[in-house]
Amino acid sequence: MDPAGRAPGGVPEDGAASAADQPHAPGPEAEAPYVPRPRPPADADGDARSPEPSATAEAPPIRLEAPGTGVRDTWKAMGPGIAAAMTGIGASHIMHGPTAGAQFGYALLWVIPFAYIMKYCAFEFAHRYTLVRGESIMEAYERVGTGRGMWPLWYLGGQSLVNTFGIAGRALGCAAMLWAAFPFLPLQAWAMVVLVSCVGVLWAGRYQALEVVVKVAIIVFAAAVILAFLLQSPPPGEYLARLAPALPPAGAMLLFSAMWGYFPTTVEVAPMQSNWAVDKKSGMVRVRELRAQGHRVEVAPGYLRNHLKLMRRDMNISYVVSALTGMAFLIVGAVVLNPLGLVPESQEMGSTIARIYTDTFGVWIFPVIIAGGVAALWSTVFTYFDGQARVFEECCVRIRKAWDSPSTRKLLYRGFQVLWVVAGAAIIFGMPEPILVVQIASVLALFFAPVLFWLNIRALKDFTGEEREHLPSRFMMGWAWAGMIGLAAVSLFFLYTEFFV
Known about the structure:
Elements: E1 5-7, E2 11-13, E3 62-64, H1 71-77, H2 80-88, H3 91-104, H4 111-133, H5 138-145, H6 151-162, H7 164-181, H8 187-204, H9 208-232, H10 236-240, H11 253-262, H12 269-280, H13 284-292, E4 297-299, H14 303-340, H15 349-361, H16 366-399, H17 406-430, H18 434-459, H19 474-499
Parallel strand pairs: 3-4
Antiparallel strand pairs: 1-2
Helix pairs in contact: 1-14, 2-12, 2-14, 2-16, 3-11, 3-14, 4-12, 4-14, 4-18, 4-19, 6-16, 6-18, 7-8, 7-15, 7-16, 7-17, 7-18, 8-16, 8-17, 9-14, 9-15, 9-16, 11-18, 11-19, 12-16, 14-15, 15-16, 16-17, 18-19
């Protein structure tokens, strides 16, 4: 899953003046203590004057208490984990899940839980790094690249540009849902409406007006998916047996690899998630900010430990809900669409997916499913327009320090979004196939994943002193390495089967 507003699931929203000028909180703002301004020293005549930069007046001390870990505290802390999950409940769930079920039954079901397990540490480490170090994980990427041509930043910036396929595919998917309900505009026109509307809302800073509607639509949509699963689900033995790893069936290699790339979401969401956690000012982020202002900060026992506990709850709850929903999409697709021989494709994708639910509940559910699908896919496009533009902006100003000014940052942020609209339009009009474009984007995301995963593992080596108390366990480090190697192996397997067999 985010100071003008928030996108769905805690994703930051940027307005015309705020998007590139200052960060935004990715969820409900963590309650911060009142910070009194330092009192100016009085001169001999009793006049109060503002201290010069060299003044040595000591700022008042501030004590940061440990956050609570109850239900209400957990709800307040929810944000970056939901933001990461929300970027996944879009193309992967709505497009890959039903397509896999419709084409191959339960054969690819096992990929979803394994993809979630393999990628878990990539996202957890990025968020852990930010809470413990009090900075974006991109600081660690920059240190890795210092003296080595800043290659991690070039790599991540290049990934941002390649991800044009991803934004175009998601826009086409959203457009297909819109076309199913409103076919008076062609698919490509609806896709352009999606792209331009996301940029327009970001620049205008008006997401708050839409936020409640979007959230409600997505919740109702997710509820319909789960209910359809409960009503249409075959005996558990039919699909639980397919949770054991197996080679993909003939003709499934592209979709098989695509699912690894997009479930639960793409690994580049990890640095986005880290940036959203910085904006939330929790953990050591708040401590570093106050110390930079000249305050002495006292941290209560358990302060960071509790922040980490809340972070893990945020992520784990979002992760489990996202995984179960993804599996439900595939199973219902296998039950309803597979026997009919219907596969979501072209502009009929939206109406084909909607049939899963109209066959289950009746035609009255059609507008609910379309509204929920549009909300989920539109919010995903919106999230990436903000998060990926932030990442690209950070890469540029870190590679070229002279660009690190508010005006240049805004130009980079908005310029990237304009580039995405133009390049996305070329893909949309040149290849108006939602499922195919998303599958290509997913495989490209898979190829970028292992190196980005390694960078997140490498970042934890920067922990020093007391920070090392918060390193992951040996088991979790082994889990992370296994996940990174597993993603690399899937990438090589795809290349081998597609080009050498």
